[in-house]
Amino acid sequence: MHEYGIAYDIVETARRAAIEHHARLISKVCVDVGEISMINPEQVEFLFATIIEDDPLFAGTVLTCTVIPPVTRCDCGYVGSEIYVCPDCGALPSIEKGKEIVVTNIEIEADEE
Ligand SMILES: [Zn+2]
Q1: DSSP conformational letter for 87
Q2: Protein fold of 2-67+99-110
Q3: Does an H or E element contain 29, and which?
Q4: DSSP-assigned beta bridge partners for residue 80
Q5: How far is residue 66's CA from residue 83's CA, in Å, rounded to a whole number?
Q6: pTM value?
Q7: Among 55, 43, 58, 53, which Cα is nearest to 6's?
Q8: Which of 45, 91, 101, 111 has the smallest CB count inside 10 Å?
Q9: Among 92, 84, 100, which Cα is nearest to 31's?
């Protein structure tokens, strides 16, 4: 399942960041999900919750997925959100944004120094 790999990567990215910052708890993970990434954010949230279950580092961690609309660009100069046909010249635009899954922010709680 594609979503499982995505959710797993998100967990591992958050874990690495938490360890780097000596966190004892990850309170929130924010992820941008491209609208045309073919990923179901609800499924990623569900799998994320399954993976972090019983992990004290992720006790009560909230995963927030933000769906990012696509940005496409055509050789004719068109920039917009049409992903299949350029409305100006009919060519296939290239996709600049909207396919990626990116962890944008991680909120942690760290022990006092
Ligand atoms: Zn065009």
Answers
A1: T
A2: hypothetical protein PF0899 fold (3.30.2320)
A3: strand 23-34
A4: 72
A5: 19
A6: 0.84
A7: 43
A8: 111
A9: 100
Residues 36-87 have pLDDT tens digits of 998 999 999 999 999 999 999 999 999 999 999 999 999 999 999 999 999 9
Ligand 1 center to 38 CA (angstroms): 24
To which H or E segment does residue 42 belong? helix 41-52
Question: Measured in angstroms, how far is the CA atom of residue 72 from the centroid of ligand 1?
Answer: 10
* Distances 40 to 65, 89, 92, 101, 107 between C-alpha atoms, Å: 10, 32, 25, 11, 23
Question: SS in 3 state form for 62-79?
Answer: EEEEEEECCEEECCCCCE
Q: Where are the domains of the chain?
A: 2-67+99-110
For residue 78, the CA-to-ligand 1 centroid distance in Å is 5
Distance from the alpha carbon of residue 73 to the mean position of ligand 1, in angstroms: 8
